[in-house]
Specification:
By secondary structure, this protein is of the alpha+beta class. It has three domains: about 80 residues, Uridine Diphospho-n-acetylenolpyruvylglucosamine Reductase, domain 2, CATH 3.30.43.10; about 140 residues, Uridine Diphospho-n-acetylenolpyruvylglucosamine Reductase, domain 3; about 60 residues, UDP-N-acetylenolpyruvoylglucosamine reductase, C-terminal domain (Uridine Diphospho-n-acetylenolpyruvylglucosamine Reductase, domain 1, Alpha-Beta Complex). Helix content is about 25%, strand content about 30%. It has seven helices and 19 strands. The strands form six sheets. Strands 6, 7, 8, 11, 12 and 15 form a six-stranded antiparallel β-sheet that branches. The chain has a four-stranded mixed β-sheet with strand order 1-2-5-3. Strand 16 and strand 17 form a beta hairpin. The longest helix is centred in the last third of the chain and has 19 residues. The two termini are about 15 Å apart.
């Protein structure tokens, strides 16, 4: 990826201190590891985001979107691309319509999943409690079909607004996308081969009226259980591997393989939950990837099960 002087001048003139060059991604991911991004820009409004995406398309810059940086592992040599950070914009959440017993809530992609869950709780809307404690942004949760044993995004998402591969806004109904396990898939007419990946701007969620007191009690129980069973006090990217389609979960398989507490450098398979890899302070991406390989090899050898990462691994 080549940034000519004119492009660099445009970026700094347009974004000021909201654009950085060769920015360490360890500052922008929940794992707290990762080499530098060639460009990292954090637009503060949607018009700036649209201008940036159009510039990237014009210059043929590869780009990727991050929100909370919670479900990615950036390799130690970094990302030779434009990283667009949405944490400074696209935060609005609002009720847009009530139809009979359905409540339609519009949440922009840069809003945190926690803020959407809290919005639903505070208004007595039922349907989002499954996502309590899931880190990151609404856009990331949609892209990953984030979920827990209680449900996932596919059960509540109705429509999506995107910037398509040409930088134009497009409104998507259910016919335009579908979900598989931990992934949103756009249909061929939306994400055409050779085009840039669509950028999610917002999602509309269909919720139901509920009793606020009951919902808040349920929420407290969910969060307490999460805190008890997961290592929430150290940097990680959440559950690292997808669960197999049947049988034991990824965490159970890794635990049965005797790998709880196994470490490489400052990376460790959590003693609390074996599907979490944690950064004890100064781990590198290579340390984490070594543990990933160890878990995959041991589980395959002992149980003939292939562990596939749920965390997106990017960079060089």
């Amino acid at each position: 990826m080549i940034i000519d002087s004119e492009s660099k001048q445009w970026l700094t003139g347009f974004f000021g201190n909201k654009v950085k060059f060769d920015e360490p991604m360890k500052k922008h991911t929940s794992f707290r590891v990762g080499g530098p991004a060639k460009i990292l820009a954090a637009p503060s409004k949607i018009s700036d985001l649209e201008a940036l995406v159009k510039k990237a398309i014009e210059k043929k810059w590869p780009y990727m979107i991050i929100g909370g940086g919670t479900n990615i592992l950036v390799k130690d040599n970094g990302i030779k691309a434009l990283v667009i950070d949405l944490k400074n914009c696209l935060k609005k959440i609002e009720v847009i319509e009530k139809v009979n017993n359905d409540i339609f809530v519009n949440a922009m992609a840069g809003a945190t999943t926690t803020s959407l869950c809290n919005f639903a709780l505070n208004n007595g809307f039922k349907g989002m409690n499954f996502a309590l404690g899931i880190p990151g942004t609404v856009g990331g949760a949609m892209m990953m079909n984030a979920g827990t044993a209680q449900g996932d995004i596919s059960k509540v998402l109705e429509t999506i607004t995107i910037l398509n591969g040409k930088g134009s806004k497009k409104y998507l109904g259910k016919k335009d996308y579908n979900f598989i396990y931990r992934k949103l898939v756009f249909n061929n007419n939306i994400a055409k081969q050779g085009e840039n990946c669509p950028v999610i701007l917002n999602g509309c969620f269909k919720l139901k009226p509920g009793d606020r007191t009951t919902l808040k009690k349920e929420a407290a129980e969910i969060l307490l259980k999460r805190k008890k069973n997961q290592p929430t006090n150290l940097p990680s990217a959440g559950c690292f591997f997808k669960n197999p389609e049947s049988g034991k979960s990824a965490g159970e398989l890794i635990e049965m393989a005797g790998l709880k507490g196994a470490s490489k450098g400052d990376a460790m398979i959590s003693p609390k939950h074996a599907n979490f890899i944690i950064n004890q302070g100064n781990a590198s991406a290579s340390d984490i990837l070594n543990l990933v390989s160890l878990a995959q090899e041991r589980v395959l050898k002992m149980f003939n099960q292939i562990l596939t990462p749920e965390v997106i691994i990017v960079g060089e």
